[in-house]
């Protein structure tokens, strides 16, 4: 009886994790669509994809960014996301993802653009970690980025309830000012969405930059 209770509790916990880990994921569940967007002073981005099979998604993506004293460059392209490896643990999950797009850059830099990236994330119902490296290239353009995120939830919730998290991100971007961006943020996760609001480099006084991230699965 005790063993059966352990199994039941484990199943319940994994069901709660199933969306929580998707807060770090780059796609929804099989046969779903996902819309993601980031709006900030230093770059803006959105991606819409569809997942025809577990671990694969294809879609469209557009990002806009600029270096110090430069005209903004907009990259529009076709995007692919693939799950390379997943580890399911009794009370957590970890993943390695590939994500990338090919398309066209317009603005300060023009021509063929490509944005391959690798992402590792690990998450339980209370703790979260992510590491990501991304190339953002076009002729004469290099906006390669690297980011680390870590966070914790304030309390556990049910599967259909909204769970608040605190997340801290450190991000670098080549040829961008500032080169190091530190963003503390509050993230709200629900079954079909997350919303995140943060302040990049809040110690800069008038130079601080609000940032909004959002993800919706439907």
List keywords for this structure.
218 residues; mainly beta; Porin; twelve-stranded antiparallel beta barrel; two-stranded antiparallel ribbon; 1 helix; globular; disordered N terminus; signal
Task: Please explain how this structure is put together.
The protein is mostly beta strands and 218 residues long. It has a single domain, classed as Beta Barrel (Porin), CATH 2.40.160. It contains one helix and 15 strands, in the order αβββββββββββββββ. The strands form two sheets. It has a twelve-stranded antiparallel beta barrel. It has a two-stranded antiparallel sheet with strand order 9-10. A hairpin with a 3-residue loop joins strand 5 (92-107) and strand 6. The longest helix is centred in the N-terminal third of the chain and has 19 residues, at 2-20. The radius of gyration is 18 Å and the shape is globular. It starts with a helix and ends with a strand.
> How much strand?
over 45%
CA-based gyration radius: 18 Å
The CATH topology name reads: Porin
- Indicate how many domains the architecture comprises: 1
Shape: globular
For the largest beta sheet, what order do the strands appear in spatially? 1-2-3-4-5-7-8-11-12-13-14-15
Average pLDDT rating: 87
Low-confidence runs of at least 5 consecutive residues: 1-22
| CATH architecture label | Beta Barrel
Please count the beta strands (DSSP E, at least 2 residues each). Answer: 15
User: Could you name the CATH class?
Assistant: Mainly Beta
Question: Helix-strand pattern, N to C?
Answer: HEEEEEEEEEEEEEEE
Largest sheet: 12 strands, antiparallel, barrel
Q: Separation of termini?
A: 39 Å
Helix-residue proportion: under 10%
DSSP helical segment count: 1
């Amino acid at each position: 009886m005790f063993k059966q209770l352990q199994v039941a509790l484990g199943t319940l916990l994994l069901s709660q994790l199933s969306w929580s880990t998707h807060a770090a994921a780059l796609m929804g569940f099989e046969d779903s669509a996902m819309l993601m967007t980031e709006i900030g002073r230093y770059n803006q981005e959105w991606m819409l994809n569809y997942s025809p099979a577990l671990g694969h998604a294809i879609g469209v993506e557009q990002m806009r960014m600029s270096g110090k004293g430069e005209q903004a460059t907009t990259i529009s392209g076709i995007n692919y996301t693939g799950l390379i490896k997943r580890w399911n643990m009794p009370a957590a999950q970890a993943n390695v993802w590939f994500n990338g797009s090919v398309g066209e850059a317009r603005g300060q830099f023009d021509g063929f653009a490509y944005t391959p990236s690798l992402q590792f994330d690990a998450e339980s119902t209370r703790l979260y970690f992510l590491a990501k490296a991304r190339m953002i290239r076009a002729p004469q353009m290099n906006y390669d980025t690297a980011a680390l995120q870590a966070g914790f939830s304030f309390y556990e919730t049910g599967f259909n309830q909204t769970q608040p998290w605190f997340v801290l991100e450190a991000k670098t971007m080549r040829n961008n000012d500032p080169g190091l961006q530190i963003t503390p943020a509050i993230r709200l996760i629900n079954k079909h969405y997350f919303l995140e609001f943060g302040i990049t480099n809040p110690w800069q006084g008038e130079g601080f930059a609000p940032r909004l991230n959002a993800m919706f699965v439907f």
